[in-house]
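#dry-run=false #mode=assembly
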Amino acid sequence: MSVELDVFVGNTTIMDKEVYQLWLNGYTVNDAVTLRIEGGVMEECEVLLSDTMDQYRTFQMCERLLHHPAKLANQLLFQIPPDRQAMLIERYYAFDDLFVREVLGKKLSKGTKKDLDDVSSKTGVMLKSCRRQFDNFKRVFKVVEELKGPLVENIRQHFLLPDQLARDYAAIVFFANNRFETGKKKLLYLTFQDFAFCAGQLINNWTLGAVDNMMEDMDVDLDKEFLQDLKDLKILITDKDLLDQHKSLVCTALRGKTNVLNEMEANFKNLSRGLVNIAAKLINAKDVRDFFIDLVEKFIEPCRSDKWTSVDVNLYLTHYTNSAHILDTFKHHSVWTRYMGVIKSCILKMYHE
Amino acid sequence: MPGKLKAKIVAGRHLPVMDRASDLTDAFVEVKFGNVTFKTDVYPKSLNPQWNSEWFKFEVDDEDLQDEPLQITVLDHDTYSANDAIGKVYIDIDPLLCSEAATVISGWLPIYDTIHGIRGEINVLVKVDLFNDLNRFRQSSCGVKFFCTTSIPRCYRAVMIHGFVEELVVNEDPEYQWIDRIRTPRASNEARQRLIFLMSGELQRKIGLKVLEMGGNAVVGYLQCFDLEGESGLVVRAIGTACTLEKISTLPATATLPSNSSPSKDIKEPVFGEEGPGVPLSSGPPTPLRAQTFSSFSPSKSYSRQSSSSDTELSLTPKTGMGSGGSAGKEAGPLKALLRQQTQSALEQREYPFFTLTSFPPGFLLHLGGVVSARSVKLLDRIHNPDEPETRDAWWEEIRQEIKSHTKALGCHAVVGYSESTSICEEVCILSASGTAAILSSRFMQDGPLETDHRLSRQPLVFSTGSERVDGDMGSTASLGFEEMVPPGCEFCHIPYDELNIPFPAQLTYCCCCRRYKVPDVLFTTIDLPTEANITGKGCLIQARLCRTKKKAQGEGNAMAISNLLPFLEYELHTQLMNKLKLRGMNALFGLRIQISVGETMLLGLASATGVYLTALPSPGGIQVSGKTPSDITYEQHISNMQKKINDTIAKNKEVYEINPPEVVEEIIGSPIPEPRQRSRLFRSHSESSDEVSEIDLSHGKKDAFVLEIDDTDAVEDIHALLTDSPTPAGFYSCNTEIMPGIQNWTSAIQMFTSVRVFRLNNVNLTNQGLNKVFSDLCENLLKSLYFKLRSLVPCCLCHLNFTVAIPEDELIQVAVTAVAMSFDKELTLENGKQSGDKSLKKENDEQLQFNLELNAEMSSSNLSSPKGLTEVGSHPSAKDRCSSWIEQLRLKAHTIRRGSVKTTSSLEKASPLPEGRSRSLRSNRSYSGSSVAVVRMTPLSFIPGAKIIKYLGIINMFFIRETTSLKEEGGVSGFLHTFIAEVFAMVRAHVAALGGNAVVSYSMKECVFMENPNKNQAQCLINVSGDAVIFVRESEVEAASVHPQSAATQTSNGEGT
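#status=ok
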């Protein structure tokens, strides 16, 4: 005797959050049943099996709609209360930080998708789940690539995601588009949230949309004009007077406020050169990719080896930024502010003591 | 040319990609009605076309309007090859033909294709302009309202219940026509869908004509079925109950509702308006008031208009009755007999005194005899002339006659809760009909509306007109006689047959409620529990399941074998039911539905019912196990173990279902009837024989059903079956009737669902016992799954839990169930209880109120009418006073009602605490604004808890076929059926929303025929669903806001329609 067919359809579609999560995590029906039995929902295997299969089927049928969340609201096939719809979408688009860290900045191409089994075995996230997450990234990327207007807002409207999740996706899209290098050994200590924060800073300040959000070309690409202007900052390191003047201003201001003043003084020129060089090189796409690795190598590592605290870094960068404005021969105040504002918050976020 | 049908195609959305090259579609629409077709322009390269067409106008006969559906086909334009069909929408125009139903169909409807399922949606507008046609010989019956609901619909009042209407039409099944060999599956499916649409339209029109002939304006309890007879054709048949309904205007009621706190005059009106005398059931808790509103004293609108006709009518009937009065009911006295006589004569004029209703206006149902059923096995042959479906008609005629004669044997004159069904396997067909024999009041069956309140209010009037003195006298006595029949909650249990002439061996005792009339020891019925019934504890679902193997045979021999098996099957089902009933300590079954399904090598029987403990009936005895050879000691022990288990189960069940019959009360009264047997039976371990058996032509004879002899292997199985029935998990109740006896405070959370399972019996050589076990497990597991699925709704009750079994092919058993889970509030009762002192006090008060009314009504029997009441009489002295005059009695009554109404309204408020009500309405608001799709509720019940149905928009009757040739790709059989059922729900919801409705009530899935061929990767499924589209408003919303409920209603409907 065997069950040939077994379905349950409710007028209001019944969806169990727990089973949904198991499905999203990529468990097979049988594994899910085992986990549920262990979870103590119910002992009877048969009942659980039937329920789990049913739910899985429902999710599979819904998946098509979840690819275009706006459709979920005006489709007729499933009657799902709005709060449930929101839950379905949010969880479907949720991702594992571990996983995203692996693909962050990589091209969302078929090639990357092929390598997902490695990612899966490395992160412990099931391949099925990896694929879903990867496809989500790709889908969001494809949709917003073509759209005008603010990136986060576009994502939120098109995929009906909650604010934080939309921001994270914006970061992922942004990283993928600019192909930032995040996989180098030196960057491994950084979490996805660190990068997401930095991406937010870059999107809000360095893209074209940051200046004029009605522009055709939007938030995904950095403002070329601005990058061009960054070259002018080189004067800060090429002009010896200016560099010395800058150094003395900063050191005067810092006196008595920190324990690592000597190190700061000794390293000033190196650090300043590092930051300004990063700025000057950003016009090259290749150097954009190395933005984060550069930040770490040129600034964060020297500071860390000198045992600066976050407070020290903050102090230093604040005065470093402000002092430049007092320099009489330095003219590029707005570009400097726009550049250093982002650099400062990124470094602070990336500076793990 | 009495009608103009207008249709406008607005837009489409979510269309499938039809052109691979461009990933787009060039869609256009064909609109067809009858033989006329219109086309829209092609809207190029879009998946969301905006046609915004002109109004397409069809000028047609109203006969065609009733028969034909509007057919909308969406196609993809192709310059070089033939246009590809995307899908179709059939729109039933019928709801637009009735002035009281919907006025426009407007909304997004799914575009359906029988191979691909739903493929996008189309926005259409459909209207009908009807011209009045007074042609007497017309063939149409526009304007007759149809309801699937098996009670008087909520916002109507029954002026008259005319009786049984039936019709059947036959045709060749397109699937079996020669042309089917050369056409595509899609074409064949569409031909079938269209044909069935046409046939059911025609059927409905013909039934409507019969109703008009009878002078009615509506069909209630409309039940339409398809018989797919294969080679021999397609039969569409329907039965229903013709009624004259009158709309209760909700306007005055709701308008005065907010002023509840003002003096009694204001209160009286809503009492009438809100509940209406004809409304038999109310969605909320049956507070005492609701049970009694039919006798409310407030003047009704119809009174002045109709009183004259009922007067003349009254003056006539007693005269005819007088001659033969006094013979029938011994205890009832001549008055009752007279009334019975007159009803009988009214009924006898009808060919079939059958009623498809399962619940009735209070006072309509007088006595219940028991279940009557008839079955016959027929061999199908090709229907040669579709216009003369005589054979099928004759078959049903035969069965109905049999039912009629069974009814007579039970001393009854009518059948209520009547239904018909078939089971077909190859060329053998089992026709079944069943119902409950009953004696009805003449109140709703004569030419004038005889409402109780009319009689009461007319009283002074009659006395004052001297010229009509004789008539007046008669009238008054008749009224008196009638008053006596106001049910004290036990009357329907009293036996309708002659005690000395019992048609079957039954154990009669005196009614435990009134102690004046005889009642049987168990009562089986096919109807819902009457609202006025006195019950103890809660009810529960009881199922008997049986499987019998059968030899493969052909033709006549096969039919013979089946008809030989049938009686045994029924007998065993009956025994099982009886045992399970006893095991739960209950004494009555409601909503009994026995389904027998025939397959090539087996017969399947499934009986479902809701067991309750009727206070009026004696407490059931237990079950005694006995061995034939009581010599062996271990054996004895085994038996006594078994016995202990059974006794424990009974005790546990009594606790679970809160069955503690008021035995104490009996002692207080000092039982007026000296009856030692009554005492002893409480301790006796087994009770006597059952009734009902003979109605299904089975007599238990001398054999006592409740001594289970252990020597008998069958009996061992039976006992095991009894004890292995897994108990419902905590927090769950289940029933197959409309409402769960004993539960009242429903919350608004409802969840309708359909579940289908198919089992394959791999082991071919199963014995009967083995098969039984498999089948029983199948049902039990299905139930278990349901409970698990719906655990989030706990505490909740699965209502209308009806199983449908089928044997789709050899070795396959299919079980389908559609039901609704409704959660209820345990806390609420407690809170309420606390607010009015304490729980028990509150309950007592209610009962007391009820009792008062009963007492007043039943003037002559005021002392002994209810044992429960008697203990409480002291607390309410006025009830003790005997009223000497009618006027005084009326005053007292009016007074009580007024008090009752105050009480109810206040308790109603408590029942839905404001914060909760607010949040609920807020939530619903949000859901409307939050998603663009209107929420449509579906329920197999006739009501929606916590809500009021303000309009019936028409009947929904849809038939779909789905076929696939890529079964694996669609997720196997389960994936395929899951999608299809979801699609059917979606289409029902969309059509209801397009009519402006927000719910379907009395929804049912009549047919679910599933066929598969996994080897060919193919499957096909046919589903037929029906229900009533309605607009409802939340009770909290009605109370809270609406100054103009009407406008609020239109607002909601607008909001949802778009």
